[in-house]
Amino acid sequence: NLTEKLNRVFKTLRGQGKLTEKNIQEALREVRLALLEADVHYKVAKNFVAAIRERAIGQEVLSSLTPGQQVIKIVNEELTRLLGEEAVPLDLMGRPPICLMLVGLQGSGKTTTAAKLAAHLKKRNHRPCMVAADVYRPAAIDQLITLGNQIDVSVYADLDEKKPEKICSDALGFARQNGNNILIVDTAGRLHIDTELMEELQRLKEILEPNEILFVADAMTGQDAVNVASEFDSELGITGVVLTKMDGDARGGAALSIREVTGKPIKFIGTGEKLDALEVFYPDRMSSRILG
Amino acid sequence: VLGKKQIDEDLLDELEEILITADLGVRTTQELISSVTEKVRRKELNQPDKLKEYLKEEIKNYFFNLPAEIDFSSAKPFVTLFIGVNGVGKTTSIAKLAYMLKNEGKEVMLVAADTFRAAAIEQLVHWGEKAGVEVVRQKIGADPSAVVFDALTSAVAREIDVVLIDTAGRMHTKVNLMEELKKIKRVIGKKVAGAPHEVLLVLDATTGQNALSQARLFSEQLGISGLLLTKLDGTAKGGIVVGVCRELKVPVKYIGVGETLDDLHPFEPDTFVDAIF
Ligand SMILES: Nc1nc2c(ncn2[C@@H]2O[C@H](COP(=O)(O)OP(=O)(O)OP(=O)(O)O)[C@@H](O)[C@H]2O)c(=O)[nH]1
Ligand SMILES: Nc1nc2c(ncn2[C@@H]2O[C@H](COP(=O)(O)OP(=O)(O)OP(=O)(O)O)[C@@H](O)[C@H]2O)c(=O)[nH]1
Ligand SMILES: [Mg+2]
Ligand SMILES: [Mg+2]
Q1: Checking CA distances to A154, which of A173, A244, B38, B211 falls within 20 to 30 Å?
Q2: How far apart are CA A96 and CA A179, in angstroms?
Q3: Which residues, at least 6 apart from A11, have a Cβ–Cβ distance to it below 8 Å?
Q4: How far apart are CA B79 and CA B72, in angstroms?
């Protein structure tokens, strides 16, 4: 792992009291490789390592740590800081129904996350209603209705309506009548480069005036994370990120890439297929995971 | 890259960036860059415009002798098992392959062995109708091995040409779920000698280096005979298959390039590698 690699790098340099330009060079190379192996984007890794170099050079090595551990400490602190220093909760302020939109690529976990969020909010005494706005994927509406039944949360769906825009505006009316204070809108997976479908999302945004547009991203996403996230953010303006499938063994470097390129907070992580598998995001845990 | 007069540090950095951002991964990229550096050192390569061509050939070598074709007539019923982690495109890819085979005149049967996920069976049933092929299914929560067993009994009796089996997405790290998959494979083998004839691991082109861990574990536990790379219609290059082929020597059989029934193509290394650059 990285600690072992760095300790090896510094083995020949022990007894030195300071981190210098020279002994840092090789160490930072190992850090950059670790980040790339963890799927952090090429440019993000480069910038990150440059920032670490700035911070590290000239630093006194604490007597309680090896130089390798000292570098890891700096890296961990910086990575944790970048990932988001404190948990940012959902924005639920305003006149009901509060709208939360879930968007992202195909298969990232939006529909499942919608139900997890609904269960999470219901536990906190909210009255959420999910909206089945994916009219494209076979049995998508079926899927959301089934999940809604599992957690006893209402689902607004219209099997005869082919326009997500109409479904969403009707859902607003339904929520008001039905006494739901939060609407969780599940949208169809789409490519960030699909102009028509991205415009559809913009229309849904106008109709829903959502408090949150959550970008749902797969923790195992590679270098492409930067392209996708920046496109969704620039076209829609996302307010937060949910990183799913964290129960696998992906290092999750996409988290840093997405955070760096959008500046938006990671609010939750998905940790399994069951509907209670939604956790608050802890930047320090994510940092250790990325560094491996 | 082509504007350079000589192969220097900057050019190698540019190439490193192209390979890494295409998801080839650190190890494969280092191997390729070392190979280039060595050729330059031995004066066998000194023109920047030849560099890209050299790299393309080196990458294509990783796919060498890994045939993309599947001979669906080599067994009857020819049984293909689809496996992979959650959300990568297994169910949709089965639909596409079924459509392709049906248009080649084959009698195809789909098996809805994902008895776990909400509306998974309904999703496959819908696709079966669109593709014009039958789907064998039971209730949600049924034992997937039992569904497979019954489907194969029927396939043999009715002389079906090709059976495509859909399984639930699962993390390769979950021991009990991998055991479930192993049991499905055993049941297939008991019912049809020599089956499954193909075990296709479905990988999402947007996946990063975790694809290697997925491939390793599925291969170790199940044995895989081919890869199916989906979502290449996005901006991801899918370079992860280079690392997987390099290490496991498993061929890429098909690529998925969209969400409709025609969006499945046989894998072509030349086209794939060109797109990386
Ligand atoms: N292991 C694991 N699986 C997950 C998680 N979140 C979602 N899934 C699974 O990932 C697969 C895809 O989830 P969906 O909710 O259908 O994804 P989606 O984004 O709605 O997909 P599209 O609507 O087709 O774009 C399903 O098998 C889910 O059970 C998670 O945190 N962990
Ligand atoms: N753009 C694009 N989308 C794809 C492709 N293949 C599948 N999809 C989409 O990816 C999403 C997930 O596909 P599924 O077939 O449900 O994936 P799966 O592996 O069966 O998912 P689970 O059974 O939940 O594990 C759907 O929205 C599909 O339409 C592809 O090649 N390109
Ligand atoms: Mg969905
Ligand atoms: Mg499926």
Answers
A1: A244
A2: 9
A3: none
A4: 9
Tally of CA atoms within 13 A in the half-sphere of A235 that contains its CB:
23
Mutate one of B93, B209, B228 to test the A interface: name it (highest A CB count within 10 A).
B209
Contact A282, A255 (CB under 8 A): no
Q: Are A240 and A261 spatial neighbours (Cβ–Cβ below 8 Å)?
A: no
Among residues B97, B115, B114, the alpha carbon closest in space to that of B106 is found at B97
> How close is the nearest chain B Cα to the Cα of A43, in Å?
8
Q: What is the pLDDT of residues A122-165, one digit of tens each?
A: 999 999 999 999 999 999 999 999 999 999 999 999 999 999 99
- Chain centroid to CA A71: 27
**CB-CB neighbors (< 8 A) of A253 in chain B:** 208
Q: Is-contact A262 A233, C-beta < 8 A?
A: yes
Structure-token match 């789409």, residue found: A190
Q: How far apart are CA B68 and CA A134, in angstroms?
A: 35
**What is the rounded distance in angstroms from the CA atom of residue B245 to the CA atom of residue B260?**
27
Which residues, other chains included, contact B261 with Cβ-Cβ below 8 Å and sequence gap of 6+? B95, B96, B99, B127, B130, B131
- pLDDT single digits (tens) B196-255: 999 999 999 999 999 999 999 999 999 999 999 999 999 999 999 999 999 999 999 999
Order of all β-strands in the sheet with A154-156:
A154-156, A128-132, A182-186, A98-103, A212-218, A240-244, A266-270, A278-280
Ligand 2 neighbourhood includes B73 CB (under 6 angstroms): no
Q: How confident is the model at residue B4 (pLDDT cuts 50, 70, 90)?
A: low
pLDDT of residue B206: 98
Q: What's the farthest any 2 CA atoms get from each other in chain B?
A: 68
**Residue B254 bridge partners (DSSP):** B228, B266
Instruction: Between B274 and B5, name the one with better pLDDT.
Output: B274
- Ligand 1, CB within 6 Å, residue ranges: A 106-112, 134, 137, 140, 188-189, 244-245, 247, 270-273, 277; B 86-87, 117, 169, 171
Find the length of chain A: 292
Among A130, A102, A96, A92, which residue's Cα sits nearest to residue A211?
A: A92
